[in-house]
Amino acid sequence: SAYAVVTSEKQPNDKSSYEQFISLCKRHGIDGDQLRMEMEYQTILIEQNGSVLKVLFNNPEKLNALTDTFLQEYTDLLNKIDSNDEVQVVILTGSGKAFIAGADITLMRTMKPAEAAEYSKVTTEVYRRMEVSKKIFIAAINGFAFGGGCEMTLACDLRIASKKAKMGLPEVGLGIFPGGGGTQRLPRLIGAAKAKELIYTAKTITAQQAYDIGLLNEVCEPEELDTKAEEMAAAILKNSSSAVSLAKESINNGMQSDIISAMNLEKNLFALCFGTDDQIEGMNAFVEKRKANFK
Asked: Measured between alpha carbons, how far is 100 from 169 in angstroms, rounded to an integer?
């Protein structure tokens, strides 16, 4: 397996920190000197294992808040994910108590309307990038997913949460409302009535409650979260990556259209499958009673 890890530390300058860095590298079985040259992110760690990329939000002191630094780094990471043909599934999770606890309120509290509009534009574009990507995004929600953190999970394809996780859109308690897609994606996922209840009351819900209203695909014990996310990724990777990507496009775009337009979209994307090597391999394997070998 090929691994790439980007640490949250800046390049170590003293002997002690460098030794800690080399120790981290050894635990991951990688070349520390080479990795030291590749360090870029302060708030994110990444690890690639074959077609799966694990992304760890790693600013626990700020509960992985949506700081300017994080948004810049995550945008850069999305660019690299889109250009990496090997990656098919991306697993997102957080370090410490939070997945992402929301926006950086110390940053937001002095914003003027024009600044708020620009901030909302940045976050909504980041989340939209995940929706239109050919990659499948799985949110492995380890802890608090509030505000913008909750909105990020809504932009993921699938959501699995630890029993300790809590979710909510508390913005109206701060004199604003969800501006990162929450008022649009949440009703599409769980229905308008329940979405209005959660947004209007700023209610915090448990992982089990989120599962019960259809917001989560699965709830598990905290120690099982990584495994469950990896199992979900493996189940996806057994299938045709082109077919999965086209299915994602059909679902996401079709949900924004009237039924006639959506069915026409589905027909056209379905037809595209028949121009792929995966369709030939998948159907030949079925007829020949063997396992498909998708590339």
From this structure: 12
**CB of 38 within 8 A of CB of 6?**
yes
Q: Considering 151, 230, 249, 266, which one is annotated as catalytic?
A: 151
Instruction: Please state, in angstroms and rounded to a whole number, the distance separating the CA atoms of residues 172 and 169.
Output: 8
pLDDT of residue 21 exceeding 60, the answer is: no
Residue 40: the pLDDT is: 78
| Whole-angstrom distance, CA of residue 183 vs CA of residue 198 | 10
The answer to whether 119 and 180 have CB atoms below 8 angstroms apart is: no
Known catalytic residue at 218: no
Tokens of 72: 């810049």
Q: Work out the mean pLDDT of the chain and round it to a whole number.
A: 89
Residue 154 CB coordination number (10 Å): 25
Residue that the structure tokens 């699938």 belong to: 158
pLDDT given at position 7: 36
**Active-site option among 9, 47, 131, 171:** 171
Asked about 9 being catalytic, the answer comes back as no
In the sheet where 44-49 sits, what is the strand order?
44-49, 52-57, 89-94, 136-141, 158-162, 218-220
Pick the closest to residue 57 from 17, 92, 82 (CA basis): 92
What distance in Å separates the CA atoms of residue 15 and residue 56, rounded to the nearest whole number? 26
Kindly state the average pLDDT of the residues 236-242. Answer: 97
Question: What's the pTM value of the predicted model, to 2 decimals?
Answer: 0.86
